[in-house]
From TrEMBL:
GO terms for molecular function: delta(3)-delta(2)-enoyl-CoA isomerase activity. GO terms for biological process: fatty acid beta-oxidation. This is Enoyl-CoA delta isomerase 1, mitochondrial. The keyword Transit peptide applies. It catalyses: (3Z)-octenoyl-CoA = (2E)-octenoyl-CoA; (3Z)-decenoyl-CoA = (2E)-decenoyl-CoA; (2E)-tetradecenoyl-CoA = (3Z)-tetradecenoyl-CoA; (3Z)-dodecenoyl-CoA = (2E)-dodecenoyl-CoA. Pfam families: ECH_1. Key enzyme of fatty acid beta-oxidation. Able to isomerize both 3-cis (3Z) and 3-trans (3E) double bonds into the 2-trans (2E) form in a range of enoyl-CoA species, with a preference for (3Z)-enoyl-CoAs over (3E)-enoyl-CoAs. The catalytic efficiency of this enzyme is not affected by the fatty acyl chain length. It comes from the Eukaryota. Pathway: Lipid metabolism; fatty acid beta-oxidation. PANTHER family: ENOYL-COA DELTA ISOMERASE 1, MITOCHONDRIAL, ENOYL-COA HYDRATASE-RELATED. One of its GO terms (cellular component) is mitochondrial matrix.
Length: 281
């Protein structure tokens, strides 16, 4: 029955879609006047690397969507093959001290806002989604992914360690045993593997279909009291949220210390070099 309502929920009807605000250049927010659902699109070429500016725009857009009482939030990307390449490694490699602080603090803000969002959230994962990209997707309540892409927390492959709150999002979706092994291996799941393991909820064959499935998920709450729903969600997520809220300063300190270790800098440098070599071939 829900399936038959898909077309009415698709947030693509440009004639009725209202651009709420595109003041921020690296994200756009479009609200569908029929469904009331906001589509938040990341748009930072070439790979939606999460740098300070994109994170700031994401944070502002999430806030705007909450303030405007949208019925739900769908996170997606304007890039046809990449949802997000994760944190922009250039923010961590040979970093500027003050900018590094602002970068990490804003990432914390984005996670707290998205994981703790009062509105129903879904990710239309229309491309690769490593590391920070996977963090964003797993912070949402529902994930729909296109075929033949990859998703996962690959930090150990870069010689870095995913913070506890990255793991919290991952663990809210995957069984502990699967999450533990995948984190230790730095495993990237293909779309099929992600579906089999529960890392994503559905597969869609196009971005439009992914957006429609996300909208259908958000529409499934239409007969539920919104306050009861959001308080239930927030209660379920409260422990992980307060853990970071209470330890933000220590988390920042740890990050800054770790990033500045010569071995970490060396590892990031080699990883970046390999990425650049690969992109030239
Ligand atoms: C250190 C203390 C603890 C910190 C904890 C931090 C936790 C999380 C960390 C992260 O999120 S780290 C980022 C992890 N991300 C990745 O490993 C992804 C790397 N990228 C890729 O695998 C591929 O680029 C892609 C996303 C699959 C896309 O492939 P495609 O072939 O389409 O594009 P490329 O040619 O590879 O790339 C184009 C261009 O972008 C640059 N680039 C790619 N990813 C990043 C990135 N994450 N940061 C910075 N730059 C990136 C790549 O080097 C190319 O640059 P140019 O050669 O064109 O200059």
């Amino acid at each position: 029955m829900l399936r038959s309502t898909i077309s009415s929920l698709v947030p693509r009807a440009t004639s009725v879609a209202r651009h709420m605000s595109n003041a921020a250049k690296l994200t756009t927010v479009e609200i569908n006047d029929v469904t009331g659902i906001a589509t938040l699109t990341m748009n930072r070429p070439p790979v939606n690397g999460l740098n300070l500016e994109l994170l700031t725009d994401l944070n502002n857009s999430i806030q705007e969507i909450e303030d405007n009482k949208s019925r739900g939030l769908i996170l997606t990307s304007s890039n046809p093959t990449i949802f997000s390449a994760g944190l922009d490694i250039l923010e961590m490699y040979k970093p500027d001290k003050e900018r590094l602080k602002a970068f990490w603090t804003t990432l914390q803000d984005v996670w707290l806002a998205l994981y703790g969002s009062a509105v129903p959230t879904a990710a239309a994962i229309n491309g690769h989604s490593p590391a920070g990209g996977c963090l964003l997707a797993t912070s949402c309540e529902y994930r729909v992914m296109l075929p033949k892409f990859t998703i996962g927390l690959n930090e150990t492959k870069l010689g870095i360690v995913a913070p506890k709150w990255f793991m919290s999002s991952f663990l809210s979706v995957l069984p502990r045993r699967v999450a533990e092994r995948a984190l230790n291996q730095g495993r990237m799941f293909t779309t099929d593997e992600a579906l089999r393991n529960g890392l994503i909820d559905e597969v869609a064959n196009s971005k439009e279909e992914a957006l429609a499935k996300c909208a259908e998920f958000i529409g499934s709450f239409s007969k539920v009291n919104p306050l009861a729903r959001s308080l239930t969600k927030q209660q379920l997520r409260a422990a992980e949220l307060s853990e970071l809220e209470n330890e933000r300063a220590q988390d920042l300190e740890k990050f800054i210390f770790f990033v500045n270790q010569p071995a970490v800098q060396k590892g990031l440098g080699i990883y970046l070099e390999n990425l650049k070599k690969k992109s030239k071939n």
